[in-house]
């Protein structure tokens, strides 16, 4: 059975579970949603993102561009879409794992979410 680590409430609610080979992140739109999309994320992917983050405060676009410049996103599933939209959804879930682990923090600034490393 997976162990719940934490929930992160942004536009959606992301609940992070520790799984056998990494993490599972379930995304729902509201607290009363009974089912949501679950994404399995390997520990190695979370570790690689964490070690390549730069200290400071950034939005998802800046973090994604930085990771893309290091070719990290090339190995991720969902490697399609010119703007990387699907990979950014995946990155947001990876960041939720790091938030649940209290390795980074976040705040809403205007319409953007800013992640502080």
Number of strands: 7
- Helical proportion, percent range: 25-40%
Tell me the number of structural domains: 1
Structural class: alpha+beta
Instruction: Output the helix-strand order.
Output: EEEEHEHHEE
Number of helices: 3
What would you report as the Rg, rounded to the nearest angstrom? 14 Å
Largest sheet: 4 strands, antiparallel
**Principal-axis shape:** globular
Strand content is 25-35%
Poorly predicted runs: none
Output the strand order for the largest sheet: 1-2-3-4
Alpha-carbon distance between the two ends: 31 Å
Mean pLDDT: 89
Descriptors for this entry?
alpha+beta; 117 residues; single chain; 3 helices; 31% helix
Task: Break the fold down into its secondary structure elements and pairings.
Elements: E1 3-9, E2 13-19, E3 22-28, E4 37-42, H1 43-52, E5 57-59, H2 60-69, H3 85-100, E6 105-109, E7 112-116
Antiparallel strand pairs: 1-2, 2-3, 3-4, 5-7, 6-7
Helix pairs in contact: 1-3
């Amino acid at each position: 059975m997976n162990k719940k680590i934490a929930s992160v409430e942004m536009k959606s609610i992301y609940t992070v579970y520790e799984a056998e080979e990494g993490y599972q992140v379930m995304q729902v739109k509201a607290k009363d949603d009974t089912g949501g999309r679950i994404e399995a994320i390997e520990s190695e992917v979370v570790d690689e993102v964490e070690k390549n983050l730069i200290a400071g405060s950034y939005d998802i676009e800046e973090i994604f561009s930085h990771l893309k410049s290091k070719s990290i996103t090339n190995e991720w599933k969902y490697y399609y879409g010119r703007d990387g939209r699907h990979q950014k959804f995946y990155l947001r879930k990876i960041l939720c794992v790091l938030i649940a682990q209290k390795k980074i923090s976040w705040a809403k600034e205007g319409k953007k979410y800013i992640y502080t490393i």
